[in-house]
């Protein structure tokens, strides 16, 4: 990274007024799976310093499942969902109790916020989570966010708190995101092997062409690797959020603007709307609508609404208002949007113009399958 790049990275972090910090399980627990009190105390102290300087801080913390292993007599992270959820239900309380005690030493109040994918898939719940987090920051609390592992399912979950942190950073319009793990930066190869070099700065996807972004976690108590961290950085920077990836040991240095870790520069284009980023990254298609080539061109190239005339097939079951994937006839997902009809209604509308449908079935059928304002090209 040149001097200009270093200065931009420093100013992006130093000038941030609202920061989301994510810490992984491996940075908070002992090799045996219990909570590492010293590490948590150190992290709380670092964040308290930022809060004392007038910076709003949100902590996205993993560790609930890992913290619950030892009390339940489990030697390693369980693979089945039910046992993971049992461990999370024990560990989450222990995790929050420790955070509460550590932040209290700095006269700060910790507030627990547990989220599921459903909370960010449904617009009303998304807005409610947003209001709650903003209000907590306004009254001086430190929100501690985690996925609600006790009720999440394999099919509908964030999968890793890196992605959750990126979405929270977007939801809060944060200025910066700090991703902390047991690896000090992104490397152009396996960091444990000779010859690997730290990637100091990433300005866009082209900078990572040819880089093998493989999992580099070593402790075995977390779920995410470098792949999810890079994807999370992409989500955040697409939303205009400066992102730094480094180790928990470098947290203070990173927040002070030191050139540690890997700096992901925010995208230079206009920030996508909340709805666009929400549709692209915080939703999963409940089903699919298959488009003919003309409809694919209209949706992708012209950013047009999807009309009934361009639909050739419906896959899965969904209700009006659900997010659905829009696919071409080869099976590629080209867009995602909020559908205006139930899946059972669409077959009778396919291939018809909205004018014909309005004349034959009534004016309520003049509407699009997916309106362009409720659609994002992927």
Automatic annotation (TrEMBL):
Enzyme category, top tier: transferase
GO CC annotation: cytosol
Origin: domain of life: Bacteria
UniProt KW Coiled coil keyword: no
Residues the record lists as binding substrate: 62, 149, 161
Domain PUA, first and last residues per copy: 287-370
One example of a Gene Ontology biological process annotation: L-proline biosynthetic process
Protein name, entry field: Glutamate 5-kinase
Lineage, highest ranks first: Bacteria, Bacillati, Actinomycetota, Actinomycetes, Streptosporangiales
Gene it is expressed from: proB
């Amino acid at each position: 990274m040149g001097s200009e790049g270093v200065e931009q990275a420093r100013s992006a972090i130093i000038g941030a007024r609202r920061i989301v910090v994510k810490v992984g399980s491996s940075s908070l627990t002992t090799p045996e799976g219990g909570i590492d009190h010293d590490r948590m105390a150190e992290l709380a102290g670092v964040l308290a310093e930022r809060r004392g300087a007038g910076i709003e801080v949100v902590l996205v913390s993993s560790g609930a499942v890992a913290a619950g292993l030892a009390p339940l007599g489990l030697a390693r992270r369980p693979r089945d969902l039910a046992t993971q959820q049992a461990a999370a239900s024990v560990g989450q309380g222990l995790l929050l109790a420790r955070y509460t005690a550590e932040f209290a030493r700095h006269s700060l109040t910790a507030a627990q916020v547990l989220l599921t994918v459903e909370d960010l898939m449904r617009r009303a719940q998304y807005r409610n989570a947003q209001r709650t987090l903003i209000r907590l920051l306004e009254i001086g609390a430190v929100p501690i966010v985690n996925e609600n592992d006790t009720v999440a399912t394999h099919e509908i979950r964030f999968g890793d708190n890196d992605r959750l942190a990126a979405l929270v950073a977007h939801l809060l319009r944060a200025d910066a995101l700090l991703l902390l793990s047991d690896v000090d930066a992104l490397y152009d190869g396996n960091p444990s092997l000779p010859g690997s070099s730290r990637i100091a700065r990433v300005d866009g996807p082209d900078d990572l062409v040819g880089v093998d972004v493989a999992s580099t976690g070593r402790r075995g108590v977390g779920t995410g690797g470098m792949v999810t961290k890079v994807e999370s950085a992409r989500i955040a920077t697409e939303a205009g959020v400066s992102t730094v990836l480094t180790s928990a040991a470098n947290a203070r240095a990173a927040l002070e603007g030191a050139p540690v870790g890997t700096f992901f520069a925010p995208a230079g284009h206009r920030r996508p709307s909340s709805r666009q980023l929400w549709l692209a990254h915080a939703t999963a298609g409940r089903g699919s609508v298959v488009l003919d080539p003309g409809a694919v061109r209209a949706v992708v190239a012209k950013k047009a609404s999807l009309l009934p005339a361009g639909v050739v097939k419906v896959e899965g079951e969904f209700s009006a208002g659900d997010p659905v994937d829009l696919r071409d006839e080869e099976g590629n997902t080209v867009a995602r949007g909020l559908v205006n009809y139930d899946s059972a209604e669409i077959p009778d509308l396919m291939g018809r113009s909205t004018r014909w449908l309005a004349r034959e079935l009534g004016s309520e059928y003049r509407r699009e399958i997916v309106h362009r304002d409720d659609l994002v090209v992927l």
